[in-house]
Amino acid sequence: MIETSLQGFGVLVTRPETQAAKLVEAIQSKGGTAILFPVIEIVAREKAAVAAEAAALAKPDVVIFASRNAVEHGLSHTDGAAIAAIGNGTAAAIQALGETVDIEPGAGFDSESLLQHTALKDVRAKVVRIVRGGDGRELLAKTLRDRGATVTYLAVYDRERPAISSQDREKLEVIWRAGEIHAMTVMSVETFTNLTALLPDWCRQQLERVPLVTPALRVIKEVQNLYPSATTILAAGPQAADMLDAIISIHQTELGQAT
User: Fold this and answer.
1) How many C-beta neighbours within 10 Å does residue 46 have?
2) CA 42, CA 68: separation in Å to the nearest integer?
3) What's the alpha-carbon Rg for the chain, to the nearest Å?
């Protein structure tokens, strides 16, 4: 981790409130100010309904967990199969709950990375269960089906756009107009879509002026398509330390420009 201070540097954190703590703490540990503005809400599906759906699915040979949320709400539905994690963070969440991860990327944290694993190269006649939210990217399932697997989904939670009060939106605009937001973090394209929908009009107009930090190239492509002049920084990964390093690099650049 890069060593420097973020004193006087404000960062808009858009992660769900229940998942933002580590990033908020990392920013604050360097003297920065984290402004929490969650634009996605994770809502667990009713356990009995999920259990009934799981029971109706074919017994899996491999169960892939697509996120930490999938682990939190669906780890009981492995049915004795080999367990795969989309990335290191998801793997750590599985291990923290006492299970062993059999398949995880050697590097990376997305579908493309996981698909490179030897265990998923030849899946002919195997049943692969993907535990995830109510929707998501289809690349993983499509590729595994192309390789001969039967792929099923088990949705254990939903991602919803939260209702943000006019008072909270006005409060954010006051902070932004005061020049207290110097960077923002966005973890997914859905996050960015929700952010643009929930921001006050004036704040939305500032999106090309405030550097955006993300671990996903897909986000950078989406942002640059909509806001060609925006500054985007690719973090090495989604972990708090990776995001913090990218945030610090922005601050260092600003300090260099000021001297």
Assistant:
1) 8
2) 11
3) 20
- Helix residue spans in the chain (DSSP H): 21-29, 47-56, 68-74, 88-96, 111-114, 139-146, 166-177, 189-198, 201-204, 217-226, 240-258
Name beta bridge partners: 49. none
For 83, phi then psi, to 5°, come to -105, 130
- The three-class DSSP label of residue 87 is coil
- DSSP label of 88: H
Amino acid at site 197: A
Place of tokens 């579908």: 111
| Cα distance between residue 206 and residue 60, in whole Å | 48
Ramachandran quadrant class, 230 (left: phi over 0; alpha: psi -120 to 50; beta: rest): beta
Share of the chain above pLDDT 90, in %: 90
User: Cβ atoms within 10 A of the Cβ of 131, count?
Assistant: 28
pLDDT on residue 76: 96
Q: Residue 1: its pLDDT value, please?
A: 47
**112 to each of 108, 141, 203, 219, 230, how far by Cα in Å?**
8, 11, 34, 15, 26
CA distances from 179 to 23, 35, 69 (A): 21, 13, 34
Amino acid symbol at 109 = F
pTM of this structure: 0.87
* Strand, coil or helix: 30: coil
